[in-house]
Design a protein that fits this description.
The protein has 1 helix and 13 strands. It has about 220 residues and is mainly beta. The protein has one domain (about 30-215).
Length: about 220
């Protein structure tokens, strides 16, 4: 939907089909039932398309707010929260319904949770497996830290880890949690950092309530 706040009236407000002359209205999307949305460079918006809203969804959609031209990000679907990190120029998706094999994948048995990583040109870089149901993501653009929801992390240990200095957060994790890590190396664009970044995803063996865990 594209809405001009000046045209909104109190009470019931009816918004019709998109009108290019007024630049407002309901805009039809290409094979996408979105949850989240985030604004990237050049007025591009990445939409978290998911089969939970449209069983036929088979990709993620990036649409330009000015021209309304769009591009599909193939190999990634089932997103809830999405985030653009201006620090490294990448989109990140909390995709708890990504397809295990070929899209579309409308049933839970054919879906898996991943962290999606998409560059500013709408090309999928990688998907990083996450715990079941992980659908939230956020980024610290100054430190280029990516936060995801991990259901296997306990409340107390997650808080203690986040309070520690960024460089040693996982190295000095509380002894109450047995932590294992997997490392994924990716190249960050030269205009942002120009070096190799290592993403470490920490999981834990205890099971309590949801907490945010950082991918550094």
């Amino acid at each position: 939907m594209v809405i001009d706040p000046e045209t909104v009236t109190p009470g019931t407000f009816v918004l019709g089909a998109f009108d290019p002359a007024k630049n407002s209205g309901v805009l039809q999307l290409s094979n996408c039932g979105p949850n989240g949305a985030t604004v990237g460079p050049h007025d591009n918006l990445l939409l978290g398309c998911t089969p939970a809203n449209n069983p036929a969804n088979d990709s993620t959609l990036v649409i330009n707010a000015t021209t309304r031209h769009f591009s599909h990000v193939n190999g990634l679907v089932g997103s809830d929260e999405v985030w653009f990190n201006k620090g490294d120029g990448r989109y990140y998706t909390g995709s708890n319904r990504n397809c295990r094999t070929t899209a579309p994948c409308p049933t839970a048995a054919t879906q898996a949770a991943v962290l999606g990583v998409v560059d500013a040109t709408s090309v999928l870089i990688e998907t990083v497996p996450q715990s079941s149901g992980s659908h939230s993501v956020a980024a610290d653009s100054k430190r280029n830290l990516i936060f995801v929801r991990n259901r296997r992390r306990s409340v107390s240990s997650a808080r203690a880890a986040i309070r520690r200095p960024w460089a040693s957060r996982f190295a000095a994790a509380p002894t109450a949690v047995s932590a294992s890590t997997s490392t994924v190396s990716t190249t960050i664009g030269t205009t942002a950092i120009g070096t190799i970044a290592t993403a470490t995803i920490a999981t834990a063996t205890t099971t309590t309530t949801d907490q945010d865990v950082a991918v550094s």
